[in-house]
């Protein structure tokens, strides 16, 4: 039917934009995996106290950054940008997603720099114990992991939420269920792709006498190289996204068609005899 043809056309227009979210989310996945290993091989003491911050709880800083930023963005930033740009959301949805992509790249670069510093402390300075993986615990405070998590949390606030809003606004009413599931499909695909990528990096860098980037003991590996690699993928993904965004045309507002439907309904009701 004509409706099915239009639905397929709508889906084909959005798939290129959707595919950029898969590569993007690989960077977000890292805050739930290797950040935990970094925390385990860092000084997790809170200040001069004996309290140890649980390694698995560090991802909460990304969630806090996103939770705090969203109301600030909606209540303060958007109204000011709306006056400047005339856009309802301050900036377009694709621009919002693009900001998230840029922040993800910055977050990966910052992650690599912090990992270089953590590893340097573990190798060249006195350590404070041994991690469950068998590696030495760096004397660098694990609180230095917070900046990269905050940046990735802000990135998610821009891109992830921008994606969801983009799908809901660009799909027709009868495809809202597809719009709601598309983001989570991309996130799930990114998780599988991230696992496959880690396996490939393990095999390639650990071959022969090469130094495995993702060794169990981070001090013997080069996790910073892996972060730079993901940042490089993010740059390529950003270029691809900009090409797709330039090509993409937003769905036209339905206000005129809705007005036509309402006037037609009014005309039918006026001509229909009351029972």
Automatic annotation (TrEMBL):
Asked whether the keyword Amino-acid biosynthesis is assigned, the reply is no
From which organism does this entry originate? Answer: Xerophyta humilis
Q: Does the keyword Transmembrane helix apply?
A: yes
Q: Which residues cross the membrane?
A: 12-31, 51-72, 93-114, 182-205, 225-243
Q: How does it sit in the membrane?
A: Multi-pass membrane protein
SUPFAM superfamilies, per database record: MFS general substrate transporter (SSF103473)
State the family named in the UniProt similarity comment for this chain.
Answer: Belongs to the major facilitator superfamily. Proton-dependent oligopeptide transporter (POT/PTR) (TC 2.A.17) family.
Intracellular or extracellular location(s): Membrane
Q: Which Gene3D superfamilies match?
A: MFS general substrate transporter like domains
| Protein name as catalogued | Nitrate transporter
Name any GO cellular component annotation: membrane
Q: Keywords in UniProt for this one?
A: Membrane, Transmembrane, Transmembrane helix
Alphabetized GO MF terms: transmembrane transporter activity
């Amino acid at each position: 039917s004509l409706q099915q043809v239009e639905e397929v056309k709508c889906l084909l227009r959005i798939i290129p934009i959707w595919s950029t979210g898969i590569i993007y989310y690989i960077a977000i996945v890292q805050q739930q995996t290797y950040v935990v290993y970094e925390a385990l091989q860092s000084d997790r003491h809170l200040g001069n106290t004996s309290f140890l911050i649980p390694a698995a709880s560090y991802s909460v800083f990304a969630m806090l950054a996103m939770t705090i930023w969203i109301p600030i963005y909606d209540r303060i930033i958007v109204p000011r940008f709306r006056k400047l740009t005339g856009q309802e959301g301050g900036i377009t949805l694709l621009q919002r997603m693009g900001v998230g992509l840029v922040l993800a790249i910055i977050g990966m670069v910052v992650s690599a720099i912090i990992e270089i510093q953590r590893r340097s402390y573990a190798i060249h300075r006195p350590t404070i114990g041994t991690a469950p993986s068998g590696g030495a615990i760096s004397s660098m405070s694990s609180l230095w992991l917070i900046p990269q998590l905050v940046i990735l949390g802000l990135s998610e606030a821009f891109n992830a939420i921008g994606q969801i809003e983009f799908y809901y606004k660009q799909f027709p009413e009868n495809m809202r269920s597809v719009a709601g599931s598309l983001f989570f499909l991309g996130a799930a695909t990114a998780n599988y792709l991230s696992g496959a990528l880690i396996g490939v990096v393990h095999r390639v860098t650990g071959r022969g006498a090469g130094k495995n980037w993702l060794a169990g003991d981070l001090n013997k590996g080069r996790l910073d190289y892996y972060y730079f690699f993901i940042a490089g993928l993010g740059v390529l993904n950003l270029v691809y996204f900009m090409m797709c965004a330039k090509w993409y045309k937003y769905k036209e507002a339905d206000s005129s068609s809705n007005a036509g439907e309402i006037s037609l309904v009014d005309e039918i009701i006026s001509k229909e005899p009351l029972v």
